[in-house]
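Protein modeling request. Please complete all fields; requests missing the sequence field cannot be processed.
Requester role: graduate student
Desired output: 3D structure, token encoding
Chains: 1
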Amino acid sequence: MDSWSALLRVVAVTDGDAGGNPPVTLRPDPRHRMPGRGAWMHPTPDCFELAVRRKAFGRALRLQAAVDVSAVARHLGVQHE
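Delivered output (81 residues):
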């Protein structure tokens, strides 16, 4: 828990051209302006790794499919597999 100005908002984005089951990619939203449901996290590598390990992004964004977190990892400067 923290003030919204200290947190990074993350949103799920799907590629509409991918057909029946498009892949879900997480994108950082540092300006808090992107449409859709957002998940909030501290912009630190530790918080990111904990959220990935606990699969918190999927729960917070109400997603059933696996998500690609590479864009958020790049934004935070984290090496992620």
